[in-house]
Write a structure and sequence with these properties.
Layout: H1 2-9, H2 11-17, H3 20-44, E1 74-83, E2 92-93, E3 97-104, E4 106-111, E5 116-120, E6 124-127, E7 135-138, E8 145-154, E9 161-162
Antiparallel strand pairs: 1-8, 2-9, 3-6, 3-8, 4-5, 4-7
């Protein structure tokens, strides 16, 4: 006990050796810890929802980071698209971005630079906006391709705009 009381008595001298910033940092840490403990019990008291149901229409994983940008008023449209075996969308572009999930089948897209991308069921992709991102989607398989697409378009825009194929395209 005596050692403790000496240490306690030496407290102000010991504290004087610590920089003021270190003492205030410890105080901030203690305050934050107490505040966090005060919040934790409230999460346990959250009420469960009732009378609410949800259905996942489609789910897909992107191959990379999904970046979405819009400017001004934006129409958000969710649509299912079915492309029959042997069918195509025709060359087109969008005035805004879209996010697509392939629910079934495999969509084969030829892009403006004539590169080809295949997206099977369970995958997703983002199509950029603008005429320089024209493309065509084809179903080269034997089963219908079903897409769930979310369009993010400037208010009042059409879902797509027809486009001429690029010079490198054969169809």
């Amino acid at each position: 006990m005596r050692a403790w009381s000496r240490r306690r008595a030496a407290g102000p001298r010991w504290a004087a050796r610590w920089p003021r910033a270190a003492r205030s940092g410890r105080a901030a840490l203690v305050t934050a810890s107490v505040a966090a403990l005060a919040v934790v019990p409230s999460a346990a008291l959250a009420t469960p929802g009732s009378g609410v149901t949800g259905t996942i229409l489609a789910q897909g994983t992107s191959d990379g980071t999904v970046k979405v940008r819009t400017k001004g008023r934006t129409d958000v449209v969710v649509r299912t698209i079915t492309v029959a075996p042997g069918g195509s969308t025709g060359w087109h572009y969008h005035r805004g971005q879209l996010i697509a999930v392939v629910q079934s089948g495999t969509l084969t897209r030829t892009l403006d630079d004539c590169s080809v991308e295949e997206t099977p069921a369970g995958k997703s992709f983002v199509e950029p906006s603008g005429a320089r991102h024209r493309h065509i989607g084809r179903n080269l398989g034997t089963e219908p391709v079903v897409l769930y697409v979310t369009y993010l378009l400037p208010a009042g825009s059409a879902l797509s705009e027809d486009a001429e194929p690029p010079g490198c395209a054969h169809a």
